[in-house]
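Quick one: co-fold with 1,6-di-O-phosphono-beta-D-glucopyranose.
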Amino acid sequence: MKAFIFDLDGVLVDTAKYHYIAWKTIGTSFNFNLTETQNEGLKGISRTDSLDLMLEWAGTKVSLEQKEILLRQKNEHYLELIQEMDRTEILPGVLTILNFAKENSIPVALGSASKNAQLILKKLDLLPYFHSIVDGTHVTHSKPNPEVFLLGAKNLNTPANQCVVFEDAAAGVAAAKAAQMVAVGIGDPIELAAADYIFNSLESIDSNLLQTLAAI
Ligand code: B16
Ligand code: MG
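Sure, here it is.
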């Protein structure tokens, strides 16, 4: 039995733009201007690791207490930004693949670094498609560590090498490969070169290819 594991941010929904706005605002509090290119490097990385990277790029240090405050402020702003999110923000091709999995009894898990994953899936009305949800609240190691995907495979009772991971971040593709899984990269072919397959969007995956992926 094959299984599909989906990343959330950037694969099912474009939350990257909201993370970017919230991180950019936090950056201004320590005189750091986060660029779009730097933001690419934050994709798939946990909230704490993202802040650590930004502080490193800014060449600055803050106390642990101040870090906690910045992390809380970032998330409060992010939650405000996604408050109105609904099914119209589901990315093209997502429902086709989830329905394909459902019709073919392919087990489906979420493998996301986000601690807001449950809330977002609920807003998008996608919870019923998932047999297991593994997110930032369940793991101790951030992607590129394979923990999040290995836990998803375990919850689906599927061997790792029978799982297909859909990911938009280089860190996530690296995590899937470290877990010995098939990696389908969604996004920039250069950035995601380590993936087994690369597409612009889930919408580019036609039914023949879905059959192939399901039969790997
Ligand atoms: P939160 P994914 C990741 O989600 C995002 O790509 C990354 O930008 C974010 O910092 C991380 O979740 C943590 O998110 O602040 O909501 O806990 O791509 O692994 O689904
Ligand atoms: Mg992502």
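If it helps, Residues 16-84 form a domain with the DNA polymerase; domain 1 fold (CATH 1.10.150.240).
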